[in-house]
Amino acid sequence: MLPMMTRDDLFNINASIVKKLVDVVVNNCPKLFSVTTLDAATRFIESSLQALDGDEDVYECSYVESNLTELTLFASRVKLGRNEIKALAPYDLQGLTEYEQKGLEALKPKLKASIDNGIAFANKQAVTA
């Protein structure tokens, strides 16, 4: 735990972050909002707090720059550190079944559109901040 902070303080910070995330998603990307999105965001925030607290064994999935496919970003398992991603878990797509490979190929246009929208949104926020 961070110095001078109680568990209630951390809970309130976490709740505030999640509320802000939900507000941004609902206001800017209403079609993306779902309970699953909220759950994933909450889990990632909790894991980030664990890493900030010094836990050395925290892993989550996150979009990261990748050369696994032609997409610029790909969801991969990462090890979180106090201030950064410490490691990218080794992974390749060699073990995919034919069914999984066809599914991935079919999803790539939708993934690319989602990635492009996310990057555009992040760039817009950076400009207005």
UniProtKB/TrEMBL annotation:
An example Gene Ontology CC term for this record: mitochondrion
Keywords of the record: NAD, Oxidoreductase
Pfam families: Ldh_1_C
Coiled coil: none
Source organism, top-level taxon: Eukaryota
InterPro entries noted in UniProt: Lactate/malate_DH_C, Lactate_DH/Glyco_Ohase_4_C
Residues of the Lactate/malate dehydrogenase C-terminal domain: 40-121
Keyword Oxidoreductase: yes
GO molecular function, one term: L-malate dehydrogenase (NAD+) activity
Keyword DNA-binding: no
Record protein name field: Malate dehydrogenase chloroplastic
Organism: Prunus yedoensis var. nudiflora
